Amino acid sequence: MAPTLRPRRLRQSAPMRRLVAETRIHPAQLVLPMFVAEGLSEPRPISSMPGQVQHTLDSAAREVERAIAAGVGGVMLFGVPEHKDAEGSGATDPDGILNAATRFLAERFGDATVVQTDLCLDEFTDHGHCGVLAADGAVDNDATLERYADMAVAQAAAGSQILGLSGMMDGQVERVREALDAAGHQQTAILAYSAKYASALYGPFREAVDSSLQGDRKTYQQDPANRREGLREALLDLAEGADIVMVKPASLYLDVLADVAAASDVPVWAYQVSGEYAMVEAAAANGWIDRDRLIAESLTSIVRAGADVVLTYWAIEQAEWLGAMR
Ligand code: PBG
């Protein structure tokens, strides 16, 4: 008996496949994470992330121009300070590298793109943790919330339009919202890295920001074993007033992403992190994988699972490629 139901009909040619594709990526739904370092005279390559650099202010400006020209939706800034201390003072100093870079880039490009900032202490603390430490060495949740509140106001004052709360402290969205509103920054949006897992995939990022972390972040970032908890974290952030929720990393957590996308009434983003980038680049450099196909497939899969926007180090390249396809 010949089959009458033939799904292959819709796969028979490239135009047919293009017509029936369920998932399409638009450059505007890609956000470029960028590192801006203090005290550099030249951009400095990040060896574990081939093609990515720590930027100077000038090279960052050129990169943002490229991103805008390619149609990328926005940029997410990370600061790499020269000096670190226990409280991460550089994070709240208006002239600290992240706030200075934000002011510099928001002034120039704030009308053309969405300048966003990572809100976390890990780049600024000498111990490398995302919060301040209690006397016993544990990360002190509630003391950290006060630092985040000050950091949020400093970033909003510098011109950041979306604050990416990536520290995984309990109650951080509520505390930051309260601080922003009290300071007159009602229009500054909160992107909650809601379901952020303690992942080995952040390895290359630690080099990118000259991280000084000893140990791990397992008392605040989530256990990779937990799916239900990822949804719980997202629902809590929604209740606290998050404007956008995020799942991170992306590729290994597509189940969590799909759960959050099904439950959220605000946009859901995903972060294709440094290790996801490095694995593809390393395999491609060895000739073991078709780099361009894998990048496109990975982004398509993240969007298919439910992400409205993806943070990816390939944002410019991918946006240019998508533009050329049209
Ligand atoms: C915290 C932060 C991290 C990343 C984004 N924000 C590092 C961490 O939690 O250890 C990782 C991003 C990446 O790996 O690309 N400031």
Automatic annotation (TrEMBL):
The active site is at K196, K248. The gene is hemB. It comes from the Bacteria. Pathway: Porphyrin-containing compound metabolism; protoporphyrin-IX biosynthesis; coproporphyrinogen-III from 5-aminolevulinate: step 1/4. GO terms for molecular function: porphobilinogen synthase activity; zinc ion binding. Belongs to the ALAD family. This is Delta-aminolevulinic acid dehydratase. It is an enzyme of class 4 (lyase). GO terms for cellular component: cytosol. 5-aminolevulinate 2 binds at S274, Y313. Homooctamer. Keywords: Heme biosynthesis, Lyase, Magnesium, Metal-binding, Porphyrin biosynthesis. SUPFAM superfamilies: Aldolase. PROSITE patterns: D_ALA_DEHYDRATASE (PS00169). It catalyses: 2 5-aminolevulinate = porphobilinogen + 2 H2O + H(+).
